[in-house]
Every structure is written in C-alpha cells, then in structure tokens.
Structures
1.
Amino acid sequence: MSHNPPPHDSPDLGLHELAEPPVQFVLAPPIVRSIADPVVISNDAEDARTGWRRMASRFGGDAASGAISFAVHTILLVILALIAIIDDKGPHGPELVLGPLRETLEEDLNNSQIVLPDVSISHEQQQASKAIPSEVRFPDAPNIESPFAAPTVSVARAQPTDLFRETTVSDLLEATNTPVGGGFEGRTPEQRARLVVARGGTQASEDAVEQGLAWLVEHQRRDGSWHLNHQEGPCEGRCPHPGTVGTSTGATALALLPFLGAGYTHKQGKYKEVVNNGLYYLTGRMIETPHGGDLQEGTMYSQGIATIALCEAYGMTGDEQLKPYAQKAVNFIVRAQHPRGGWRYVPGSPGDTTVTGWQVMALKSAKMSGLYVPSHTTELAKEYLDSVQDSGGVFYGYQRPGKDSGPTAVAILLRMYLGWQRYDSRLVGGFLYLANQGPSTTDMYFNYYATQVLHHFGGSEWDRWNVRMRDFLVARQAPSGHEKGSWYFVDRHGTAGGRLYTTAICTMILEVYYRHMPLYGEDAVEDAF
Ligand SMILES: [Zn+2]
C-alpha cells in the first residue's frame, strides 16, 4: 500500500501572486473598536480589496486563475500530508471484540490526475469587482438574505434526521451510545477547569494552551488579521517557518479558533480586543454573492474554517451583529456542495474528504449555534462519506474508497457528529484503526482529527493516546525567543501552513478536553443542551 506522491519540489504554481495583498489595510480606529462599528477603508485599501477579490472563485467552474493556482498547490500539499507518519503502535491491542474486517482493496489514490478547467478572469469580472463598495458596514439589524426559507428554530428542530438534535428523554436513556454532546458548554472558565481534570489534561497542558494563545496574539496584524506567512507582521521575521499559502480569511479564522476553543470571545475574557479585531477583519472580508457570503480567498478550505469561527463566535456570545454573517457563510457552504454530497476546493466540484470535513464541522457549529442548516445538506454529506468508505464504513479514502489514516480520522469524526452510535461496529472499527496507530510525531492534521475521535470515544484507548499526545506537545512547544509558545513540525501541512497553522492546530489539540463536549457518556448527559 503506497502512494505515488508528486515530487517534493513543486513547480511554480503562481503562488507569489497570492502571497500578500499589494497594499496594507488602513483601518480606523486602529486599536479599540467594536465589530458593530463601520469599517472605513482608504482608497489604497480598496485596491487591496480588489486584488483579493480577483482571487475569489465563482460558481460554475468560472474560477479566477489565482484561485486555481492556489488550489493546485494546496491539492498537492494536502494529498501528501494525508500520509500520516505513524510512530510505534504501542503494546496494547484492541479491547473491544469486533467482527472480522475484510482486507481493503489496494489503494489507488492517484490524485495527480486532477484536470483543471481552463479559466481566466474576464474584464467584466474585474470591473464588477471594482464596483464593490469600499466601505463595509455592519447592518443595524440582522439582515439575512438567505436563498432559503427564513430560518426558524422550530423548523430546524422538527427534522428527525437533523445533524444536531436537542436532548430528549430517550436520548438520556441511551446517553452512552447516541451522540448528544459536542457543544460549547465546556468553554466557560469553570467548566474548562473541571473538564481538564476530568478528561485528562494537566496544568502543563493548560499552560501550553495559554502560551500558544500568547504567541498568536503577538502575531496578529494591526488590521486584526493573521497570515500564514507570520513573518511580515509584528514578528518582523524573528520566528522561522512561515507558511506559503496566501489566505487571510483562512489564517485569521484558524488563529481565532483556539481563542474561542478556550472560552475567549469578543465579549468575555482577557482577549476580547484580539478576538474582536479578528472577527472585525473576517466579516469585513466577506463578499456578498447570490449564493451567500463568500470567504474563500482561494478555496473552500478557508470558507469552511472561517464559517466555523463565525458560527462559534455567534453561538458562544449570541451577538446578533454576527448572526447574518455566520448564516450567509453557512449558506455559501450549502450552495457549494456537490450533488453527490462532498465539497472540494472550488464550489460545486466533486468532493474530497478533507475539504468536506471542514464544511461539515462548520454546519455542525452552525446548527449548535441556532443557525439554519437544511437537512438535505447533511443527508447528502452522509452519502458522500458512503462513497469513499471501505470495509462497510470502517475506513475511508481521500476521493474514493480507501484505507487512509488522514481521511479515516476526518470521516470517523464526521460519522460521530452525523449520528452514528458509539457501539456501531463500523465506528468502533475505525476508532481502533486510529487508536492503534498512535499519535503522529509530525502530522498534526491527522492528530487534530484523531484526537477528537479518541476523546469522544473515551476509554482506555483514549487514556493511552492522550498521555502520549499531550506530553509530546507540551515537550515540543518552543520554550524561548519570539517563537516561545509556538510549534512547528516538518510535514506537508506544516510547510504550507507554517508556524501559524501548526500553533493553532496544536493549541486546539490541547483544548480537546473542553473545546467540544463529549459526544457520548456521562459528561454528555450532564451538560447536553
Ligand atoms: Zn515571531
């Protein structure tokens, strides 16, 4: 079983065009502001915005060339990064008895056969992008221009197959089996402290979380954004390993998530201003389209991550100013789904498991925050997972049936959120497959998903995984210098996302105890909403 990875030295894919906007934003006021304040952008900044919008891909395969270049590069990186580097398997075998699993077919993930549409940005598109107003204002009241029927909580709750359900009496009776948790209730200071102790965290892991956040604060730009090339901001090149992917929405959202995961919002905690400015930037970057709020800046990766950040911030604070932005971002995801259920870099393309993972997690965050997610969207997402599963749903591939550790980690987590019960033999099989690999020492993308799977499932496998994962990250956090509190590991994702991506992901791995309430078990019963 092996892949045929593209050569390490990728050809010039035009990423230099995407590395940075040509002009820095000039936002006023620069320091203290509320996300309710209007954003006033100078003429220079308008040019910068226009430059970014040229990269925004459109529906129907009519994507900007910059977006395609970005997508190609990301595809190559992601494909290779999905090859998790496995360290020792550990001495312990599976403790749950399973039926026999048939051997998977030989993998054939020749992902180099990607055919890109021949597109280029038209003069009309350029003119249209210039016509976008340079002044972005938050609405005085929620102004949802969703293409869907007006969202109401009762409609969403009436669907028995909905993704994220209210807890019912019958749920409580089956609470160790049926997923009922997963919410944000663990992010209060009190719950965070309780869950750290109850679920396997330590003072050292909590210190590492705070150090990671402190590093992120030091690398936020004056306009509220983060960039994967962290060196050009306040860092001034002092920390090595900048990322190479040029997305400010994706990077800003990725940096916001660990703050939200630890309970810090623009309304609560010591990082109110940091989070506020990040949300301010993110919402200002949204492009209104007939399909919803476009935050891609290149690919659906950024759309998914940015949507999670907006939904979590709204769900945690109930800030009505955020609601229309979060709903529009969700709408864009809904409209970007391929008819067979998945998502990929360009809206409407046949899906892959990793891009699909971010979108489904965004829909889950939306649902838990009281936003509207059509049931047919989540039903279709299940069909996508069916289309890439192997051994009846134990293993998953990247774009077709397979047994790949990265896609399996993503897909098993999605299966949990999409309603599979804890003792479902398919789920248990996938869980044990991940558990027996142990945490990777280089691939934090795999660890991010697998750690959530292991945490939700719990038991001795989780205990064993947790000690190794937790102590490894605590030991490998940069101890000094400007990079103090950050992480970097050499792998494909690390190269593309750099120190900023790696730090955000590692911080969230160490927040696993409270970032999402356990989906199964007594904690889910006690704290289910
Ligand atoms: Zn630095």
2.
Amino acid sequence: MPPLKHVAIIGANGTIGRALIIALHVHMPTAQIETFSRTPAVIKDTSNHLIDYQDESSIAAAANCAPEWDLVICATGVLHTEKISPEKSLHALSRDHFHALFDANTITPALIAKYFLTRLSKTGIFAALSAKVGSISDNQLGGWYAYRASKAALNMIIKNAAIEMKRTNPKAIVVALHPGTVDSPLSKPFQTHVPKDQLFTAEFSAQKLINVLMHLSSEHSGQCLAWDGHIIQP
Ligand SMILES: NC(=O)c1ccc[n+]([C@@H]2O[C@H](COP(=O)([O-])OP(=O)(O)OC[C@H]3O[C@@H](n4cnc5c(N)ncnc54)[C@H](OP(=O)(O)O)[C@@H]3O)[C@@H](O)[C@H]2O)c1
C-alpha cells in the first residue's frame, strides 16, 4: 500500500471506530486523519468533524473535507437500541424496527459511499464495517432478521459500488469488513455464549482490520473480508 495522505474514519465515537483511529495514527503517522461523528470525538488528537447521518448534505460536506481520499472507513452501525432488540422469531418483526436498522446499516453507508467514492484517489480504498451474520450462505441459526438483512443488503451495496468503480476508477478498492465479535456496547447483551478467545478487544480487531486493508488487491473489490483476511461468502 503506498503512503496514505488523506484518511477518513466515519463513526469516530464507536468502539471499533475509536480503536481504528488510534491504530491508524501508529501505522500511518504521516497520514492526515479526518474523523466524523454525531457528537464531538472522544479522541481529541484528530481533526474531528460533526456529521448528521440523517442529512445527506452533511454527508456531502464531510466528503469535501479533503481533495481526495486514500482510505475511507465507515465504522457506523446499529444492532439494538433502547427500543429495539434483535428478533428471535417472526412474531417480533416490526416495520419501525426494519426501518431503523436498514437506515443505520444499509442506507447510511450507501450514502457515505455515494459522496466519498467520487473523491477516492486512484489507488484508494473504501471499507464499510459489515458483519458475518449478513452472509446468507453462512446463516445456520436464524433470528436477528433486520440486522442480518440490513448487513446482507450492505454487502450488495458494496458489490454494486465495486462494479461501478471498476469502470470509473479501476484500481480503487471497495470492500465490506467483518471485525469479529468485539467487546462493545453493540455486542454487550449477546456475549454470554461467545467463547472468551472469540471475543476480541477493539484494539485487537482494529489491528487485524488494518492488516487486511494493507494487503488488499483489486481482486478483493466487492467482497466481504473477515478480520483474519478470509473471504465471507455472500
Ligand atoms: N461489535 C461487534 O461484535 C461487531 C460484530 C460484527 C460487526 N460489527 C459492526 O461494526 C460496526 C461498529 O460496531 P461497534 O461495535 O463499534 O459499535 P458501537 O460501539 O455501538 O458504535 C456504534 C457506531 O455506529 C454509529 N451509530 C450509532 N447509531 C447510529 C445510527 N442510528 N445510524 C448510523 N450510525 C449510528 C456510531 O456513530 P458515532 O461515532 O457518530 O456516534 C458509532 O460509530 C457496526 O457496523 C457493527 O455492525 C460489530
């Protein structure tokens, strides 16, 4: 990977977003790292900008913060809220719940791609945090309807965007990333049955994800890769 000049981390106050910022400062000390979050960033030594994921003009303004981007990571996403818990059965499905999760997990990253991809450098990388549970072929357990479906849809957006970029910016790379199961508020209520060695710290996951990003080639564009580099089948 050539030295990176301009890096964007969107979702700078998320657990994995924060860990990525810290790790990128170490790995890429010369890069200008711009961070974006709904509220002022907890990590103070970066160039932080407020962003409203609900306002497309705010996303457009964020993309304009650099002349071009060498690396863009969208680290946003929602599994549960105070009002929403992942569905265990069809009985729990709700229109509002679907709207909220598709909005956060599919539409927001898609609109971020809309504006940031047009400013991706010739060897630039765009990565969105997805999840292994978005794989249809890997689904053994069922449940989590809206989260699974919204991440599967995100993976489709990534594939589509990669195809489009092949025509307009052929060396650029667009991927989805699965960070592993990471100790964060997002996973906290669901950690009981996760074996200890499979529950990662955000720092560990961020190191692994950066390693994956540093070893990407254009054949990876459009795919979903896990923290250890293996390809997650759609
Ligand atoms: N933790 C895991 O085990 C795990 C496993 C697989 C995949 N992932 C994925 O990794 C990503 C980050 O997860 P995390 O563990 O770091 O979660 P987290 O600590 O709960 O952080 C949530 C992130 O999502 C953003 N966010 C919150 N509400 C949002 C909304 N309504 N619309 C759009 N964005 C919203 C936040 O943005 P601000 O920074 O602007 O506040 C924050 O960056 C998510 O996409 C998640 O699906 C996580």
